[in-house]
Design goal:
The structure holds 2 protein chains of 2 kinds. By secondary structure, chain A is of the alpha/beta class. Chain A has 26 helices and 32 strands. In chain A, strand 29 (686-692), helix 24 and strand 30 form a beta-alpha-beta unit. Chain A is elongated and about 115 Å long. In chain B, the strands form 4 sheets. In chain B, strands 1-5-4-3-2-6 form a 6-stranded mixed β-sheet, sandwiched between helices. In chain B, helix 10 packs parallel to helix 13 and helix 11 packs antiparallel against helix 12. In chain B, a hairpin with a 2-residue loop joins strand 2 and strand 3 (42-52). Chain B is α/β, with parallel strands linked by helices. Classes of the chains: A alpha/beta, B alpha/beta. Chains A and B meet through helix 7, strand 25 and strand 27 of A and strand 2, strand 3, helix 2, helix 3 and helix 17 of B.
Chain lengths: 773, 654
């Protein structure tokens, strides 16, 4: 029996030399056949009884010297084809798989098995069964070709034609990476012919559930995850296998012990929990912690094998929206694999037992447009009802800007027809804003006495809201008429939407649109109306939103809670909130048909807006999110405030005067202030009264004080009482009322010459002792 | 409402605006046909929507389903044909989306669209009957499209004409022509077709008509007759369904999976487009007395994908033969070896690997080696454009995103895999390194322009490089083209259909102008050709590579010849077109001396720029007697020098 090498007469000298060298280890006869006649020649050679293997070498293949070294070992009887490993530039190609198509009419997706050429792991894992050998150099069993008879083979697509027929005949095809060669890019002709995959429709059975995107050994180490590019293009990326946690359901202690022993091989590194069948809460609790991991729920006495687990994983990764894969869609379901990176609000699934919770998931996940799939297709999916349309909307207006801006933006918010409550959060000390808001009787006022940047008040307002959706609008945002309605309508189209934000003007945010060119409110409205029509119902899904106007679903609020009071409703607060939403598997959308004008900070001078670019907040935000890609409610949920505002310090007590006129004075005072902030709380009868009388500006002071207070890690509502005023008349300001007044040592003013000074916490405590006495 | 501009020729109900305005509502939607198809290699689906109020019916065919939106909805999943814009309101479109979406989503949740099927939302007898009969919009495309092929072909004859359709399929054929002609009347009746396609005016037996379309001999006299059978006189055409797409028709079976038993039809016409006189262009006035064996080497795929470079090689072969040389045009090293040349002249340094082998052969055999470079410097952005421009069409779900990407393209702001307009990039298959090496090895290099000279010079190491005029195709006897392109003036694009030819951008530009466009050339890239057919305006006629005689006839009757190729392979064709008096719109990168030089230079990345140039050239093509005479004179003076220069250079080489 002999081996014949079928090569091309157009191969150049280098290719021929390389072939001769490689064949020194595997003596064979060499025949030339032009590309057009290659298939016929192959079939003719196969009819010769003494020919056992035929090696097909393309003109552009330059074989490695030891290409055939290990090959003979794997050429076993029954094998149809053996392919190798091509190095094409900086990549390696190891063949292809007949992947399951995502929709008709092609019988399969031809998935090239490729990677960086130095990736040895890929080549190792690709060794073994594969669907299509790599073009360039591959080995064909003569008896296989003989069995095909006179079937017409395409000389350019010979490797794919033969692989399809091998599949039909049930003959194995393998990849042996030691058959290594350099090769050129696929020719235009080959690529042209590849577009017609339907020609293979009748050649073999192409049941999607029998097709794979990766060879078996690769499937055990990597997944292929669907990714969406530029809105409507979907591709796949190879990624390491995510962690698999196991929930073994059994009441039998022996089974439980066996699970603990055997789980290492099934899901290395995975966390194992054993629960009784009636303990549905355990499953619910496991699903509330969302992350890119799988949760296998299986009978403790009948855990699936690794192969079955990989089949479930493959099924769950067929589509980026598949959240649950099970053996059967009918109870008792068998082993169930849940994707914790896709399920929303799993803690709300109903059922007393584990099986009831799974049944509820099978029933309810499709309503969120999450796919539920089964290895055994024993039930057809039902029509998907559209998501419920939000019936009501509360609006929370966050007022912290110049009164003229507040007045204008408030007018726009009040003009929006909503079915729900209107709440306004504002600094309790801001009398002008309070008066401005209080004339609108439909607005419920939520003054924030503890935080001029309103983080506490916002969470209190969120706690007070009751509607399906809640809009938060900062008062440096001018809404065009209809903007909130369009944002709210996105929830009726996108089932998993947690928050929707509009496009805004400007250039330094992901939602920003380039210059819109309007000069007044009328033009802005016209521009918005045109945009709303042109981009009707369009949205862009994002991972992080930044705009100070946002509409949030009730469910999302319940799951992730309110805004972190460190950040408040600043840009970083919105970023933090939307990241928590995304990690909890909610979607966040920028609605293309909605727009809002964002006043520049110089125009609005918002106390909240001035935190947007604060470096200390950015640093805190980045530190928090550096390595966090999950949502743990115990850690990440910010409780909404349902309580009444805490009682502040009584009118009697101690007042520390701190006039600030310059950066230098702030530097001098901050040490003492820091000590005081650590030593005292809001309920202590102490107030630090800061009086600005120089070049140290209000916004500068606000940010500086917030940075200092946040650094104490004490909740904003409980931190030291600090007030801030402009003091053109220091004498009036220092009038104590009922409280005893002191000043900070080292910061002197003539008007305060008579006021005693303190230099530290100890002095303050001594004074308190005096007061108590 | 999202809209697309694909397959505009297949919208037979688009002109029934009153009916569309009235019947297209969620309430009147009675049936939907779903057909899974592929777009590029991506699976997708088209819907045909059928509306009826019990008496009247209308349909919107080829509503594209954006499958990704069925998984996670960022925008409307249905993309309607642009022809209904202005007729059907956004609110009505929403009603329809809401009506069909649950059914589509259910299929998406079940893994996709796998087979053609019809969903009924109410009584739809007209739809059921039409489906039974295989009518377009109700039956699978594989069955319905071939039926209407003669009418779709006849659209090229319809502009400003009176058309009569006759025979068994008269109603159906008429439906596809009515929107394109001055009048379209029908001889004969068919109640099922009338109910489906809508009423049409009946023709009188003695009615005047310009074009008759139907099966069998026409019952009245017409200057052009398209017969849905092949029994009549005239040119015969086959109908093929090009793979991988399912929707379009091809009339050139070479670029498709031809079905030998498939539909055939014939076209007979007595009308020809206006043709300019043939100029006298002597490619090389023979001096004679030369001898020797000259091998002109062209690309390995030259026989399948002829282009300007192969035309120039053929023209030079004629000139050299007249001079007394023994000449052969070969496309392989084996052919070269068999010919045993005294001198080797390579046309084009792409693909580099092949060029290198030819150069090595010349070196090994100590033969003088000349090269016509046709070199494109990678930093000039030609390869970048060829790569990114198809993405601008392919990645787009609807027409607005196409426009947006094209704006970015015009600003050269599109990047793919980090490759931008100024990147030093050429695809691996071009073998740039080898090409540059060959430029260094050649004894003599010919270029067509100063710009090309500048690109080539760094590799020449002071060896001789000459600028020569392009070689136009020698004059041949004219052939009739009326059956292919109709009798009206047109814009001609001649070249292999593929990304480097940039035909998509020209088609987009011509669509904006509403001008007839003829694209002739072999399919080099089927996926690109699929895109081109998809986005082609309804006035586009695609022809396979014409014979040299037919080519010259097309040049002589074309009002404008446009070439916005990203990466040109020689300039012989635009030289020929210019010599034949056509107004030539060409890419700015083509810096060759031509008549009307610099008049209509375009940026191949800017579709608006191309449209403006074509529009200007079209306007200028009306009164061009002086320009035509000047072009002929220019051609006589310049082009005849090209071959003489080459021969003189040979003399120095040997």
């Amino acid at each position: 029996m002999q081996t014949v090498v079928l090569t091309s007469p157009s191969a150049d000298a280098r290719s021929r030399r390389a072939l001769s060298r490689a064949l020194e280890r595997w003596p064979s006869s060499v025949e030339d056949a032009p590309l057009g006649q290659r298939a016929e020649r192959l079939q003719a050679l196969a009819t010769q009884a003494d020919v056992e293997w035929i090696v097909v070498v393309d003109a552009d293949a330059v074989l490695a010297p030891d290409a055939f070294g290990s090959l003979r070992r794997v050429l076993t009887p029954g094998l149809a084809l053996a392919g190798g490993r091509a190095v094409v530039g900086v990549s390696q190609r190891l063949g292809a798989m007949f992947g399951p198509p995502r929709s008709g009419p092609n019988p399969f997706d031809l998935v090239t098995l490729a990677g960086a050429h130095e990736d040895r792991v890929l080549a190792d894992l690709a060794r073994g069964p594969i669907d299509v050998p790599q073009r360039g150099a591959f080995v064909v069993a003569a008896d296989f070709v003989r069995d095909l008879g006179s079937v017409a083979l395409d000389p350019v697509l010979l490797h794919i034609d033969l692989a399809a027929y091998a599949r039909a005949a049930g003959r194995p095809v393998i990849c042996e990476p030691s058959l290594a060669f350099e090769s050129g890019e696929d020719s235009r002709e080959l690529r042209s012919r590849l577009v017609n995959l339907r020609r293979y429709a009748g050649v073999a059975s192409w049941r999607p559930d029998e097709l794979h995107r990766e060879p078996a050994r690769l499937r055990a180490s990597f997944i292929q995850r669907e990714v969406r590019i530029m809105g409507n293009y979907r591709g796949f990326m190879r990624r390491p296998f995510p962690a698999i946690d196991i929930l073994a359901v059994t009441s039998n202690e022996l089974d439980a012990a066996r699970v603990q022993r055997s789980v290492g091989a099934l899901a290395p590194g995975g966390r194992v929990t054993v629960c009784a069948p009636g303990d549905g809460d355990v499953l619910r609790a496991a699903l509330t912690h969302t992350s890119d991991r799988y949760l296998l729920v299986a009978d403790g006495a009948d855990l699936p094998g690794r192969a079955q687990l990989e089949a479930l994983v493959e099924r769950i990764e067929q589509n980026a929206c598949t959240a649950l894969a099970t053996e059967s869609l009918r109870p008792p379901f068998g082993a169930v694999l849940l994707h914790c990176g896709r399920i929303i609000n799993g803690g709300k699934l109903r059922g007393a037992t584990v099986r009831e919770v799974v049944a509820d998931a099978v029933e309810r996940l499709p309503q969120r447009q999450l796919v539920v799939t089964a290895l055994k297709r024993d039930a057809a999916p039902r029509a998907v009802p559209p998501p419920p349309e939000p019936q009501s909307l509360d609006v929370i207006f966050v007022a912290a800007s110049k009164p003229t801006v507040t007045q204008q933006t408030l007018g726009a918010v009040l003009a929006e027809p909503i079915n729900g409550a209107r709440l306004a959060v504002y600094p309790a000390g801001s009398a002008t804003t309070g008066r401005l808001l209080s004339v609108h009787t439909s607005v419920r006022l939520v003054p924030d006495a503890s935080d001029v940047q309103l983080a506490v008040g916002l969470n209190r307002a969120l706690g007070a809201s009751r509607s399906d959706t809640v809009a938060i609008v900062r008062d440096d945002v001018q809404l065009p008429h209809g903007a909130l309605k369009r944002l709210q309508s996105a929830f009726a189209r996108i089932p998993r939407l947690g928050a929707a934000v509009p496009r805004v003007g400007g250039s330094n945010r992901p939602e920003a649109l380039p210059e819109q060119g309007y000069l007044n409110l009328t033009e802005m409205q016209y521009s918005f109306d045109r945009r709303a029509e042109a981009y009707a119902r369009e949205a862009m899904l994002v991972d992080v939103a930044t705009t100070p106007v946002i509409v949030i679903s009730r469910e999302a609020l319940e799951v992730v809670g309110g805004f972190d009071e460190t950040f408040g409703f600043s840009r970083l607060g919105v970023e933090d909130f939307t990241r928590r939403l995304r990690n909890a598997n909610f979607l966040v959308a920028v609605c293309e048909d909605s727009y809002a004008h964002l006043f520049a900070f110089e125009e609005a001078a918002s106390f909240v807006g001035n935190l947007d670019d604060s470096p200390f907040l950015r640093a805190a935000y980045e530190q928090r999110w550096a390595n966090r890609h999950d949502f743990d409610p115990a850690r990440d949920r910010v409780p909404l405030r349902a309580d009444e505002p805490a009682q502040l310090a009584p009118g009697r007590g101690l007042r520390i005067l701190l006039p600030l006129g310059s950066d230098a004075e702030w530097s001098h005072a901050r040490g003492l202030l820091n000590e005081l902030a650590l030593a005292f709380r809001a309920h202590d009868p102490l107030e630090v009264s800061i009086g600005l009388d120089g070049s140290f500006g209000l916004q500068e002071a606000l940010v500086a004080i917030r940075e200092l207070l946040i650094a104490t890690n004490i909740p904003m509502e409980q931190t030291l009482n600090v007030s801030l005023d402009f003091v053109p008349d220091m004498t009036m300001w220092s009038a104590a009322g009922e409280r005893r007044t002191v000043r900070v040592a080292g910061i002197d003013r003539d008007a305060l010459a008579e006021v005693p000074s303190i230099d530290g916490v100890r002095a303050v405590r001594a004074l308190f002792a005096e007061l108590d006495a | 409402m999202r809209t697309h501009r694909v397959f505009p020729a297949l919208q037979p109900w688009a002109w029934r605006t009153a009916l569309l305005r009235e019947l297209v509502t969620g309430e009147h939607l009675v049936a939907v046909r779903i057909e899974p198809v592929t777009r590029g290699r991506e699976p997708t689906a088209f819907l045909d929507l059928h509306f009826s109020d019990g008496e009247r019916t209308v349909a919107i065919p080829l509503v594209y389903v954006d499958l990704a939106q069925l998984d996670i909805r960022e925008t409307d999943p249905l993309v309607f044909p642009q022809s209904i814009l202005g007729t059907v309101s956004d609110a009505r479109a929403c009603e329809i989306v809401d009506r069909v979406l649950p059914d589509l989503e259910r299929r998406a949740m079940d893994g996709g669209f796998w087979s053609e099927e019809a969903i009924y939302y109410g009584d739809a007898p007209a739809f059921a009957a039409a489906r039974e009969r295989g009518f377009f919009g109700a039956a699978p495309l594989a069955r319905s499209l071939p039926r209407v092929a003669p009418a779709v072909y006849a659209q090229r004859f319809a502009l400003s004409k009176h058309i009569v359709t006759y025979g068994a399929d008269a109603f159906e054929l008429g439906a596809f022509l009515a929107a394109h002609a001055t009048s379209c009347t029908v001889l004969g009746d068919d109640s099922v077709a009338r109910a489906w396609y809508g009423p049409m005016d009946a023709a009188a037996p003695d009615q005047y008509c310009d074009v008759a379309v139907g099966t069998g001999p026409p019952p009245l006299t017409a200057s052009t007759c398209v017969r849905a059978d092949t029994a009549g006189p005239g040119t015969r055409f086959g109908v093929a369904a090009p793979v991988p797409a399912d929707v379009m028709l091809a009339f050139d079976v070479l670029d498709a999976s031809a079905d030998p038993a498939g539909v055939r039809f014939s076209v007979h016409t007595t009308l020809e487009p206006y043709t300019r006189e043939t100029p006298e262009i002597a490619v090389a006035p023979p001096m004679g007395a030369s001898s020797g064996r000259v091998a002109l080497v062209v690309r390995p795929d030259a026989a399948d994908v002829p282009d300007a470079d192969t035309d120039e090689a053929a023209a030079l072969a004629v000139a050299l033969a007249a001079e007394g040389f023994t000449v052969d045009v070969v496309s392989s090293v084996d052919g070269l070896e068999a010919f045993e040349p005294d001198l080797i002249h390579l046309f084009g340094v792409r693909p580099g690997a092949f060029a290198r082998r030819v150069a090595e052969f010349a070196g090994e055999h100590h033969k003088p080696f000349a090269v016509h470079a046709y070199f494109e410097a990678p930093a000039d952005g030609g390869y970048w454009g060829a790569m990114v421009a198809p993405y601008c069409f392919g990645y787009s779900g609807d027409d607005r995103s196409v426009s947006w990407y094209l704006e970015l393209l015009a600003r050269r702001a599109v990047e793919v895999d980090g490759i931008g307009a100024t990147s030093h990039f050429a695809p691996g298959i071009e073998g740039l390194g080898d090409a540059e090496r060959v430029l260094g090895l050649a004894d003599v290099v010919f270029v067509n322009s100063e710009r090309e000279l500048a690109a080539v010079e760094p590799f020449r190491r002071r060896r001789p490089t000459f600028i020569v005029a392009p070689l136009p195709t020698p004059t041949l006897a004219p052939q009739p083209v009326g059956a292919l392109v109709g009798s009206d003036p047109y814009i001609l694009v001649h070249g292999p259909i593929g990304a480097e030819g940039n035909q998509l951008m020209v088609a987009r530009a011509a669509a904006g102008l509403g001008l007839p466009l003829v694209m002739a050339g072999p399919i080099e890239d089927p996926r690109y050709a699929e895109r081109l057919r998809e986005f082609a305006p309804d006035q586009l006629r695609l022809l396979d590579e014409p014979s040299p005689g037919l080519t010259l006839s097309l040049y002589r009757s074309a009002a404008v010849v446009a070439d916005a190729a990203w990466v040109p392979r020689g300039h012989g064709r635009i030289a020929t077109a210019a010599a034949h008096g056509a107004a030539v719109v060409r890419s700015r990168t083509r810096w060759v001396d031509l008549p009307d030089n610099e008049a209509w230079l375009v940026d191949p990345a800017d579709v608006r720029n191309i449209a403006r140039a074509i529009g200007d050239a079209w306007d200028a093509s009306v009164r061009r007697d002086e320009a035509i005479a000047a072009a002929a004179s220019f051609a006589r003076e310049r082009f005849s020098l090209a071959a003489a220069t080459v021969v003189a250079t040979y003399a120095k080489m040997v």
